[in-house]
Every structure is written in C-alpha cells, then in structure tokens.
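Entry for the shared binder. Reason: the reviewer on the internal report wants the predicted structure included alongside the sequence.
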Amino acid sequence: MVQHGQKVILVTGASSGIGQACATALAQQGHRVYGTSRTPRDETRGFTMLPMDVTDTPSVHAAVQTLLEREGRIDVVVNNAGIGYGGAIEDTAIDEAHALFETNFFGVLRVCHAVLPTMRAQGGGTIINVSSIGGLVSLPFQSLYSASKAALEAMSESLRMEVKRFGIHVVLVEPGDTRTEFTANRRNTRAAEQSPVYREIFLRTQAHIEADERNGIPPETVARTVMRIVATPRPKVRYAVGLFYQKLAILVKRLVPSGLFERIIMMVYSVK
C-alpha cells in the first residue's frame, strides 16, 4: 500500500544512465519506483524493473497494466528512453530516421496514451519528458536526434495545455552533455563512415561531440532536477540542465541574429 508522501513513479529506460540515476534517487527518497527496459535485469538499487519496449504498443500497455495491478495508481512518469544516430541528413536512410523517431518521439507518445486515462481518473499526475538542449540548439550531424527532441518539445507544450484542467502537469527536462552510456551506444548511420562527401567532417565533428559528452555533467545532476520537479506542486514548463555555456547557448540563440548564431555553432564544431 502506498504510504502518505509516497508517489508511484514509472521511469522508462532505467537500466543505465539518466534513467537509472533518476529511478535510484527517487527510490532512495522513499517513493515506489518502477523502471523499465527491453530486457530488465535484477536490480539492487531499490526499485522494481519491468520489461517494456517503447516501440511496441502492447509492450507499453502491458508494463503500465502490471504497475497498476500492483499499486492501483500512477503519480509520475519519467519518459527517458531514447537513442541517438550520428550522420549527415543526406546519409540518413528513411528507415534509420523512422527507428529514431519510434523510440524518441512515438515511444513517449505510447507511454502517454497508456497512463493518461488513469491520471485523469485519479485527478492528477506528472509527466516528465526528458528532452535535450539539442532539441533547442541543433547540432551538425545530429540532425534527426535534434529533430526528434524538437518534436517532443512541441508535443509536450501542447499536451500540457490539454491536460492541465485534469490536474496533470507536463514538464520538459533538457539535459546538455551528460556522462552516460549514450555516447558509446549512439549509432552511426550506415552511410556515415563511407560517405565521400561528409565522412571527414562528420568524424571530426562527432569526435568533438563525444569528447564534450564524456566531460559533461553526471546523470545524478539530472536526477536531482527530476527529484525537485516531483516535489514541486506547480512545476515549470521546462528545466535546462547542463554546463553553464550550454544553457547560455539557449539564451544566445534567442537574442542574436540566426545567421550569427549559425556561424558560432559551425565555428565551435569546426564545420567549414
């Protein structure tokens, strides 16, 4: 039985990285936390793992149903599961773009479909969608990843307005470079490393991006922001989490002419 002050929380993509850090921290606070992954392993971090493939609708609904059968409610969802692809747009096949959006965008949509009826019936809840500063500031050769996060940003803003009258909060968390397995797990498009047009500049830019990620914030920093959101009665629309200059880039993009900002990004990443 859920005790006073406890919340029932679902965290997708909780087998590593930001998702695992969030699930661990929230469980340590005393919440009843369920993490998900495609192939969950036994965990000793204080939370329960459930199998869920966010690209498969029956899998999503089965995991949510299991949680509801055990707990009877769901108070918070952290939509964290995501993947990355590196490569030029011209070198990205349609099936590769589909695969990325199936996880990063449609996966979130599936989870929202699965939990919203219960949140409406119980009179409230919080949906935290893990986006990225890359959804606000596009990077070269990360185009489809940035596009998927930009789509998530737009959907979350609309969803927030649609469900506010039911007591449901929708929040965006936008991490910058973070030290996780995401860097090693990022896939390059099939054509990226063979491209006679983009290969050299892609590999140079990708190396720069990976170095920034390895020197980024720890996932626990993002988890602390998520904990703060969970404890906040009226959370803001978005929370950027990252190194100072990365959060500054969001402001600079709003203030300077688009052409100038583009030149700054191209200079930073040595895109000539």
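Summary line for the report: The CA atoms of residues 176 and 244 lie 10 Å apart.
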